[in-house]
Amino acid sequence: MKSNKPIEACIVNVRGQKVILDADLAQLYEVPTKVFNQALKRHANRFPRDFLFELTLKEWSNLRSQFVTSSSNATQHTVDETNAKCMVGGSHGGRRTLPHALTEHGVIMAATLLNSQRAVSMSIFVVRAFIQMREQLAANASILARLAEIDRDLLGHDAALRAIWTKLQPLLAPPLVTPKPKIGFNRQ
């Protein structure tokens, strides 16, 4: 049941939000996904749409196509479009419903449902991973803003240097050679 996947790999972007899928979170908490989802259903009033939402069939297909699975773990995937449910076949059973995605706030709320020591410690770990990702994004944004400011300054300096070069050009050119009149008496 333990996950070999780092926590950052579990956080995916869906609908413009960073989320963790129910199966990944259940694996981190070391509980079966079915048990985890039952706890979510029992306490549905704690999870508004901005904390928890079910993926659409298209979103789930897109995410599955991004995940790389080995051929030994591959199972047959079929889609029941009339019920809009994902059915994962194979000899080992599998998902019969579309996965749920939990936002950072949903992960915090899910931590209150499971009272095991593992759930509490993993919840703290997951929340810290979200915070670290947010800080990295903010740091990247400030670096990009500073680079844009430097770029604007350099463009301004380029224009000033071009103006100076244009004004210095006549001074740098060799003087025009004008023939000097001969000294002395000219009979002509």
Walk me through the structure.
There is one protein chain. The protein has 188 residues and is an alpha+beta fold. The protein has a domain of 120 residues. The chain is built from six helices and six strands; from the N terminus they run H-E-E-H-H-E-H-E-E-E-H-H. Strands 1-2-6-3 form a four-stranded antiparallel β-sheet. Strand 4 and strand 5 form a beta hairpin. Helix 2 packs across helix 3. The longest helix is centred in the C-terminal third of the chain and has 56 residues. It is rod-shaped and about 120 Å long. The protein starts with 6 loop residues before the first helix and ends in a 16-residue tail after the last helix. About 12% of the residues have low confidence.
> What structural class results from the helix and strand content?
alpha+beta
Order of helices and strands: HEEHHEHEEEHH
Q: Rounded to an integer, what's the Rg over CA atoms?
A: 33 Å
Largest sheet: 4 strands, antiparallel
Specify the helix fraction band: 40-55%
**Amino-to-carboxy terminus distance:** 115 Å
What's the rounded overall pLDDT mean? 76
What's the total count of β strands? 6
Strand order of the largest sheet: 1-2-6-3
* Tally of individual helices: 6
Low-pLDDT residue intervals, each spanning 5 or more residues: 69-91
Shape assignment:
rod-shaped
- Strand portion, in percent? 5-15%
